[in-house]
Design brief:
11 strands, seven-stranded mixed sheet
Length: 119
């Protein structure tokens, strides 16, 4: 069964950068679509961006131009590079693999990693 483990969260000042990692148990190359979501305190979880196996990416307007998603199938790891961070980026960040044959037709979430951006 596919499992996802995020890391790299922490406290950063506004304008700073962080890189989150999402380690995938098993072979990530068989997972066509993966994504990042976030949930700020008191708010619903929201989509941040998506990457497909060929490397194409799409992003929410709120992070476009500041965040970059990449994946290294050889390392079974997906990344979220976050630059020019703003206090409103404060949230728990989750990586996600949608239901597919590779995930046993289950939607898979990591446990989340907290990012706090101070003003």
């Amino acid at each position: 069964q596919v499992q996802l483990v995020e890391s790299g969260g922490g406290l950063v000042q506004a304008g700073g950068s962080l890189r989150l990692s999402c380690a995938v148990s098993g072979s990530m190359s068989s997972i066509f679509v993966m994504g990042w979501f976030r949930q700020a305190p008191g708010k619903q979880r929201e989509w941040v961006g998506t990457i497909i196996s060929g490397g194409s990416t799409t992003y929410a307007d709120s992070v476009k131009g500041r965040f970059t998603i990449s994946r290294d199938n050889g390392k079974n790891t997906m990344y979220l590079q976050m630059n020019s961070l703003k206090p409103e980026d404060t949230a728990v960040y989750y990586c996600n693999a949608p239901s597919s044959r590779a995930t046993g037709y289950l939607q898979v979430w990591g446990q989340g990693t907290l990012v706090t951006v101070s003003s």
